[in-house]
Specification:
The chain is α+β, with helices and mostly antiparallel strands and about 240 residues long. It contains 7 helices and 7 strands. InterPro entries: Endo/exonu/phosph_ase_sf (IPR036691).
Length: about 240
């Protein structure tokens, strides 16, 4: 997507920031939800975008929500020739954007804000978006590997094993957590953030251990793009 959105977004983040070090989320959240930002890292595209225009308006907040909810990345302020987030209008604001889905990022070469020309617009500067051809993408994917290997994850929940899951929860650890919480209630003024973080970690570990014992685990080893010999040789109008 590329065009005038009348949205001033400043430097607001355009994706949900999920902490991958959280063991509970890692084991109980679908991996695909965590992979979008990793594509930015693999392609050498900064997670944080730059923008000379630091103003945020109402349309800008709605625009950011749209990007987050539809897993779209703003290219302005991230790519070569536009890493500073150059203004796209004569009043030094950034209101014209180029957006990309996660997988389409592999097609993106560079984005450039061209010099203002009144022949094209009375306010806006032209945007120039350069894409790779199919052959260039093919060569790139064949020479680069995008994979996440050796990550152990708990298998999916099965309702029929609900009681087994409950029985596998270590009651001694639960009692210990409850006793510590009771002690904290009686001494609230001396409870630290470190104490509460330990409680949360122990709860997550206890539930995760029960899940592993009940549903088993599997090692995640997935190549994000599988390049077959004929993948890029089809005519554009062919459909599988």
């Amino acid at each position: 997507m590329l065009g005038d959105f009348n949205s001033r977004t400043g430097n607001l983040s355009d994706f949900y920031n999920i902490d991958k070090d959280n063991s509970f989320e890692n084991n109980f959240t679908d991996y695909n939800e965590l992979s979008d930002v990793d594509v930015l890292d693999e392609l050498g595209i900064p997670r944080l975008r730059n923008s000379i225009d630091t103003v945020v308006n109402g349309y800008g907040r709605k625009f950011i929500d749209f990007c987050k909810n539809n897993r779209m990345f703003i290219l302005n302020g991230r790519l070569e020739e536009n890493k500073t987030g150059s203004p796209t209008s004569r009043n030094s604001s950034v209101i014209d954007y180029a957006l990309s889905s996660t997988h389409f990022l592999y097609n993106i070469c560079k984005l450039e804000v061209l010099n203002f020309c009144k022949l094209f617009s009375d306010v806006h500067s032209p945007l120039s978006l350069q894409l790779y051809t199919n052959d260039e993408i093919k060569d790139k994917l064949l020479t680069e590997t995008f994979c996440f290997c050796g990550d152990e994850r708990v298998n999916k929940w099965k309702n029929e094993k609900c009681n087994e899951y409950k029985n596998n929860i270590d009651r001694n650890k639960v009692d210990d957590i409850c006793n510590r919480l009771s002690a904290y209630v009686n001494d609230v003024n001396n409870v630290t953030k470190y104490d509460m973080n330990n409680i949360v970690t122990d709860i997550c570990d206890t539930l995760t251990e029960s899940a592993k014992a009940t549903f088993g685990t599997s090692t995640f080893n997935k190549t994000m793009f599988k390049c077959s010999k004929n993948q890029f040789s089809k005519d554009w109008y062919n459909k599988d």
